[in-house]
Amino acid sequence: MRYHSTRNKDHFVDSAQAVLEGLAPDGGLYMPEAIPGFDWKQCLAGSSQQMSAMILSALLPDIPDMEQLVQRAYDGKFETEDLTPTVTVGDSTVLELFRGPTSAFKDVALSMLPQLLTAAKAVKGEKEDTLILTATSGDTGKAALVGFRDVPGVRICVFYPDGGVSQVQRAQMVTQEGSNVAVCAVKGNFDDAQTGVKNIFAACQGKRLPFQLSSANSINIGRLAPQVMYYFRAYRNLLDEGKIRLGDKVNYAVPTGNFGDILAGFLAKLLGLPVGMLICASNANNVLTDFIRTGTYDRRRPLLKTTSPSMDILVSSNLERLLYLLSGDTELVAELMGKLNAEGVYTVPDPLKDAIQSQFWASYCDDARASEIMGRVYKEQGYLCDPHTASGFAAAQDYVAATGDHRPMVILSTASPYKFPATVLEAIGGDTSGSEYEQMDRLHEITGIPVPPALAKLRTMPELHTDVIEKSAMLEYVMAL
Ligand SMILES: *Cc1c(COP(=O)(O)O)cnc(C)c1O
Asked: Which of 97, 103, 105, 137 for mutating ligand 1's site (highest number of atoms within 8 Å of CB)?
């Protein structure tokens, strides 16, 4: 299948090459030339792994043996065989995406990406080692480390801001075992770490190096495509529970940062799944809410630090893919992205705004409301959710209140509450003193909900990666790996 950049229709690669390159040479994102015909009803009939294999074969047809790759990615690594179970909470269905090895929703995609990358290298006869470079504000780093650990022909280096991730998130990364992993703290904030990584990519461009640089971010179609499965899985569970009949539309509320997860929902819809409204949930960094409501994207505002850090983001990379899918106009996309880069703001033409608003709805909630929701959902429904998921509950509520659309609602839950124990404890009226480990224990005592085993054992594991460097030393650090 031919892929091209969202910014240029004339430069083609196949789907294996798109996975290898990650980003297109012109800075655009790779998208298929056309969405393939797809038997979505047959897809719904399978297990989660079969769904994944069928969807990935359709979207990445140049990568062979997909069933085997899926099996290798997921077998025995998730808490449940269906990978992403659903729970009924009041009128809604919560799709729990955090039941993987690092308790982050990124596990589903980052377990699969190494398999896709290795297979794509084989297809392309690419013999060079790959070096995955990632800057993380917490969750991506650990999920990528686990996914790429001991994958032959691949090394991975993760940079995190020194003092800028939670105690548990740091422990998850610095205890990582594996012969091909490096983890390093950078003196600075997340933006410094991310800028440092971008600078390394720029410095290496066109140079002959003993490795090929790549990224584990959702700009890579190989990171995005594995997420399409979630939407099929949730739909199938609603069918099995008799909440819908085949063909009924279902709405999905998605806690959103880089727009990867929700875009996977739109791809599910384009593949035929009866998706109703896609509800984009943000925290106080509500750039996307404003955009979907007005058609103007304006990143010229301060980045706020919230209790849902994985959604603290002002430039949502994958929105570019949506602009392309709904306009089909690569020149327009290139122009808008140029404006975003130069001026920090762009406005889409009215027909494109209308197209977006017919498929997407958006709302946001600040920390206080997220806390109120976590407390209320726990008290009234006995369900404990994390602050990211709380924004999903908020947006779902706002949507129903604004539209009166009472179709079945799936809320995507993107993190375990045990990842943010202090915020969650505070929301349910618990004592927040002590270390994060003590907070986890207390949360467990109060709720009886088991602590994910991989988080529970962290406190006794040896720290293997204790490097801390200046941000100016990142390139040197990578070259010495
Ligand atoms: C990454 C992440 C998100 C945002 O997902 P996108 O695909 O970037 O929109 C939301 N919640 C959590 C917990 C995350 O880790």
From this structure: 105
